[in-house]
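Quarterly update from the structural biology core.
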Amino acid sequence: MQAFTPVFLKSAARPGDFPGDLGREVAVVGRSNSGKSTAINTVVGVRKLARVSKTPGRTRLINFFELADGRRIVDLPGYGFARVPLEMREQWRALVEAYFRARRSLVGLIVTVDIRRGLSDLDETMLTLARGLDVPTVLLLTKADKLSRGAGLSRRRQIEREAPDGTIVIMFSAVSRAGADEARTQLADWLDLA
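Predicted structure, tokenized:
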């Protein structure tokens, strides 16, 4: 299993705050409350690297974490939370769009999806964006421990049929650690740390 030595690098409220566009980075994005920050912490093996909250919409900046020299994982703000003011949602959208337009070092995208909810329109929009940028993508089906094994496998097959061809789909649980090694291996491969 790949071991990382992650450290917080910086937060960005605007594109001018992004760190230098050198090396390789993998972005993590998902619907608010899909388990994105918990997944980051589990995959990199550090309990409190990304801030976890039960309140949707807590990640409001783009957070960069360095896993090794020139190798980063990037925590993007969640999408789809209606209680955040429209002005703030627009700021986040513009920031995330600027990130995707600007980052030449982006080599992979992990989209967290609560397995119980399946793909939303916003998830599909993110997958289409990644495909248009030719960025390989993993769908991390979080909270898999909330379903029985049979129901989880059935839901996974359904989501695999809905996802674009070539999308890797991983059933994941931070509680049981199911899928953590597979996600870590994919992350290390994209970052050329294998």
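The chain has one domain: 7-190.
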